## 1
Amino acid sequence: MKVVTGVEMQSIEKKAFARLGLSPLLVMENAGSRIVEVLKREYGCLSGKRVHVLAGTGNNGGDGLVVARQLLALGARVKVYLVGNQQKLSKENSTNLEILRKLGVDLQTVEAGQMGKLRFSLGLADLIIDAIFGTGFAGTLNEELESFVTVVNDIKCPLVAIDCPTGVNATNGQVGGQALRADLTINLGFLKLGCVLYPGKAYAGRNVVVDLGFPLVHEGRHFLLTEECLDWLPKRKPWSHKGTFGHTLVIAGSKAYAGAASLSGQAVLRGGGGVVTLAVPCGIYDRFEPDERIVVPVSQTDEGTIGVPSLQELLELMEGKDVLAIGPGLTRRPEVIQVVQELLRKWDAPCVIDADALMALDTAFLKSVPEDKRGQWILTPHPGEMARLVGNETAKVNAERIEVAEDFAHEWGVVVVLKGAPTVIAGGERTYVNSTGNPGMATAGSGDVLTGLIAAMLSQGLDPLRAAALGVYVHGKAGDRAALRGERGLKAGDSLETVQEILS
């Protein structure tokens, strides 16, 4: 599903007006009709219900005024609160406001010093419509609006936002101070990026998208992952065999982190990989129960990690393998980093680089690797690891998840899976934002499972960007299904038990 920024949406509409010769008033009328259709579907018969519309001075406010008029025609008891400087109404807003005046609709101007009166009045509503800013907001609300938002948020009735809740930046989801908390956000034309990125997503409630009555043309790069991405996996032919779905080598684990290697290897097979070989330090070899995985012990350092003694063994294991997954549980010892760098220099096929292996990716090393090799790499950092890679603060990475992931992917020609809520997958000409997952997955081992699932998608023939995106989606969806028994106490391995259901 396409996702756009607020600025992109305004540009899309402007181009459509010019290309099709559309009247903004007609588009506003269409928008109002689509919004009312959603309201009827979500809240049933609106006749007799007290619907209070919060209308700003721009065209988002104009959409709200159209909704008010159409609801009036349906028998709703409509009240409109005019927010902002009424001397600065857009042309279309002014036209629709004049119509409401002629119809005798109850209009009230929101002014400082009247919050007590407004609190009482709004408290009578059955439904509140937020049409103050939409995609036109950035920064922070002024003191008067912050007070008004606080009043509205205290009202115990459903709130529906048009395009984006007031106080939320439609481009990056940032909230500078206060913002309205919607139960439902009706996105016009395309889903807005600010409604799927946190913290904006928490204020948007449930998102729905409606068309505007005419086709919109947009060649953007941002997409929300939905279950349609499951169709990317090729159908399995009846004569397939284990070799058809690739042989993945997982280099992982250390004395303290045998579980990381185990989870990654299991995830490769659960995700549909044909064969998986686990290369682990010999000291933890006996901790792996016999199962479908091939577990190969390699020489280890005195600290129980891979190192220079195991380099030649690992290079030999790489021969004949289709996919490499490296990093989970390796530790960040200098000798480990040295070995990881040497292995990556020698590897010429798709690769997932996770966790401790990311420590090997300093600028000097990245520059030393040919671009065609890096083009097959998928990096899976969490925000802290991403901050180290880009030389920035973790808070900055979280605040600019899209830009940070895209910039790094573009600079180095890799696919970046920036983990978190929501996970962002950037590479090439597209960026995906994940729609699955839950707080219960914030637990040790989740990243190891994700590494294995992405490797499994690579082993089945997907290109790195799609493999990364599909692995992320499936991981989150499996976690959502496992969390039906409760988020608290969810273990990383629990999602492995539901992956098969997601992929069936």
## 2
Amino acid sequence: MKKTSEPRHLERIERLRHLLQCLPLHVPKEAYPSTTQLVGRVADVYAAASEGALRRAVQRDLDALVQQQRIAVVNPGGKPLRYRRLPSDAEDEDPAIEEWTLKAIQMLAAEALPHRRLDRLWRTLLTNTQAPRLDESRLRVVSDTLRLQPADLYQGVLSAVIQALIQRCALRVGYVKTSGERSDPVLHPQALVQRGPIAYLLALKHDEDPPAHVYALHRMVVAEVLTETPARQVEGFDLDGAIAEGRIDFGQGALIDLELRVRGYLADLLRTCPMEPNQRLDDEPEGSDFDLRLWARVPSTGQLLRWLLGAGDNLEVVGPPDLRRIVAAQARKAAALYGGR
């Protein structure tokens, strides 16, 4: 019996929580919602067979919340009755509510951990409209790199891009390249990505075939949503796949077999946070200048190159040979800037 009744019990707790969130604390009397208004707001969380059954279920839950002194009728004897939430900590102290929250947290964590997708877990906890939720006073995601100020965008561009994505419409933009050359392409948006301080739109241009190309929003001087023109969609488009391939980092991101020697803080970091799921580590021989040798199959992107250069002398690129030559050349150029000073 416990296995069948427990979910129903938790469903009821969720319904009560949802009702509470629909009730304001302090507004003018006529602005407090009635039963009819609440029915429209909470219908999606009630498994009712008919509109009449839904209304009766909502009324029962409202009566229960009044009995528990969590809500109150603001116009006793009036028609229709209106309800307000009472300022109380009773909800937080309810063991059943705590049990529901704990189960939800366990489910979220169990989903995130196998794939190391903690970023999604943090976003869920920060943006949930229902429990479990943590606000920014108790949870913050801090970048581990220098944070530049976001690029300025022209008036109306951001809202137009978002509207086109939501409505799956084409978008005509005025686009200025780094050379100063301007074009006015019709774009077919696929996805929007914020990489560091710059936002990019992945889109098809005119009648071009896939793959989608990358367009920086700060280079759009004007944007117009073409509401009568449906955006062409790339069949099987996968945003995570596009990011993994390095599409957002100006290149196809061909996979390479990376071999590194690392030491110091980087050795500890890469033991804890692998570069990819199948990363392999071996201890360096005794007497080596480095602590570990690492093998990983990763996309060759500008992001990878910047990360390798940022590690300084805590890292040596062993292979592939082309990447080793690029890193060595960049290191020599940087050293030359400081030579003799």
## 3
Amino acid sequence: MTTYLNDPQSEGQGLPIVATSSVALLIDFDNVTMGMRSDLSNELKVLLDSDVVPGKITVRRAYADWRRYPQYVVPLSEACVELIFAPAYGSSKKNATDLRMAIDGLELVFLRPEISTFVLLTGDSDFSSLVIKLKEYGKHVIGVGLQESTSDTLVQNCDEYYSYNSLTGLRKMSEEDVDPKDPWDLVAQAVSKMIDRNDVMRSDRLKQVMIELDPSFDEGDLGFNKFSKFVVEAANRNSIGIQKMENGQYEVMRGDKPNVKKSVVKLNDSSKPNSPDLQTGYALMVDCLRDQNDKGQESLIDSDVKRKMLRIDRSFDETEFGFKKFSKFLLQAEQDGVIKMEVAETGGYKVFTGHHLSDIGSMGLPTEKDAIVKYLTNSYQGIGKKTAEEVVVAFGEKVFEVFETSPQLVKEASPRRSEKLLDGWKADITRRRKVEINGKDSD
């Protein structure tokens, strides 16, 4: 039996329209370019023929400023992908593409009601709102993105999420596969390649070409928390030339061969941030969890934790502490005993405050900085005013929480006196908990 739909917006209202299951593929090309190679036609064919796409694709659109990607126009056209031109102007160059794709996605809900599934090829968290809205209209949303640049929030919001790398046979090469190139030679080689193929000479495109030449490249391994800082250092070494444009981006060009090689510290994969500033991130997270506890909710989903943290402090960014993803920040916090996590039924994690934090605030400990300095100096054996001031400067009013949750940070803030500080804390908190228990028992 054939089912018919009536489109109230069409002039021929009442005419039969066959309701078939169809799919819309929307590609955020800026976001996924770094994972694509010259055999883009084959990669897309593999993706479109995979089990990920649950029906016939009736809409295929890719969004970008195509002046930046002339080498991809033919492969995409051969794959029957409609190229939507979103010109990049001023500081909103990225948002122009994102907004156009989001608007088209919602427009298709009403103009093409037969489309039941949307496949979004992106890893950008900005599209989470679009995903939620599509699901409200009863659409099934499938996300596909690069493993190394996909937002955890987007993954959780999609009905399904797949790795573009795995589906197309791509993978990030390990050190066993290839020896990583010297980054300063690599960046110079990338600029030359961009010039040879008449590419757009901007720093955002530069990184994509560098990863194309060496998939193991990551500026974070060199100690840079932003690619723009790596670009400036490359210019200082004369590996490339740069010129700042009005929109804040850097125009890149060939540089002179570097005369002096500066040493660069390469971080091991097993390394973790060793800055006392990490405690500020922990404190913000604990405040959010405690606020939720006060409202009767014992845990939060990991994506909600970050959302609440940003409401309180919009400057929070886990990459400033050396973490590429918020999930890694959470795992480190769990390892340090600040929080507990459990796998949620919907995927992701439930986040709880560490069991030992809940009672510290009720122990009668000083909360003002000057009072904390006096307390440590007078109450902890072997601790002088100078040491007390050191830890108060490092951790502020959260000193006692740091003692309890992150002893390794105390060792970094005061290497010579950390053992005495922690021994003093252990004796102090044990005594106070005994007093509290005895007091409750006597009641």
## 4
Amino acid sequence: MNLAMLLEMAADGFGDRVAVGDRSTGLTYRELLDLARGAAALFEKHRAERVVVVDQNSDAVPIALFGAALAGTPFVPVNYRLADDRLRDVLARAAPAVAIVGPDAIERVRGIAGLDVMARDDFLEAAAKESPGEPGFTDPDDVAVMLFTSGTTGEPKAAVLRHRHLTSYVISTVEFMGAGPDEAALVSVPPYHIAGISAVLSSVYTGRRIVYLSQFTADEWSSAARDQAITHAMVVPTMLTRILDAVDAGGDLPALRHLSYGGGRMPVAVIERALTRLPGVGFVNAYGLTETSSTIAVLTPDDHAAAFGSGDPAARARLGSVGRPLPVLEVEIRDESGGALGAGEHGEIWVRGEQVAGEYLGRGTVLTDDGWFPTNDGGWLDADGFLFVDGRLDDVIVRGGENLSPGEIEDVLLDHDAVAEAAVVGVRDDEWGEVPAAAVVLAPDGRVTAGELQDWVRARLRSTRVPDRIAFVDELPYNETGKLLRRVLKDELSG
């Protein structure tokens, strides 16, 4: 199966439903397919080897995505927020390609060898006018999507996802025509993030209308959710806190039924606040990676309710987990030698399944011969199979030969009423090699000293885990998808 078939099935099954945009004036599934076919013919006319998008969320994204699939051409959405030199370097690596570019980026990408630049509006007009040719066959093993990593500490890698990986994920996680005619998904993550890709594919297959938010602000998100009767949405942790503040200030979200979150650590206090403030919403914590075509594990609405309503501390702790692995996937925790570990033992998270790609442009696959992918994330499984993610193994703090998890220390800091956000990194130390240091954002009425927070941690964890220094900051450094930029923070705290 290939991505184009997902849209073709939707157009055949519920072609008159609105697929993208306003419920009254948006594109229907049949219209989306017609435009994608026009886009495919356009790409073939340009002899595109890849289809690049340098733009915010818009109708052009699904049209280009499915048009590329119909043409048998890889789809490559690129981070338009990159600095000019980094953006041009990524685009040069993606060339030769047709590049669909938003109005703010046209001048930034001109003159790159092998890049056929087309303004977004020109692309949409041309796709509407182009006469579709005879549909070809796209092999499930062909490359469907390439996504460049954020590249905050070096040259970005391009993760390669083939049609069989992405369709396997969609078919195993959602039901064809499973959405009701009133359902609508608000997509506010950018198109170059795997969550943005999977949101389009899953929504199309289920028949759920897609509403795009070009750039996230909490007020615009809340307004769109109300005005467009949004039933489903996905956010990153930093978004959820701001959305809850906006809801407190401006009213409820009456249509919202399902809110998934992922892409970073969610403080338990924030999700408990969300469960209290939005009791009619089913919350889902989804953990996944680009290389695994999105979600690996899910903490379901029932899991949230059971943990939130329990007086058992062990059950409540599961709000800090990412749930249980999808039934179609295998997950193991392994030690440094590759040996499987038991429940409660910390190690590296490994995953295997049909949706797992583990491949990079120019670097080949990192899968083992029997299909296992090392995520480079640390974590552990409890006795009931709930997965807890400690964070990237690269972020582990090695203090005098002892491995410390930043997430463990952050969770304790976040339990303090005065703390709104906290991040812990390792900084160099002459005696211990590395010691933990913390950056803390105080709650609006929070009052606490660094010494008091150090005593707070010392009372709950071993003394080696107490931050050597604590800096109070106005905000933590996140990228646009909510990922904490630990390397930036490390530089700031090492000064």
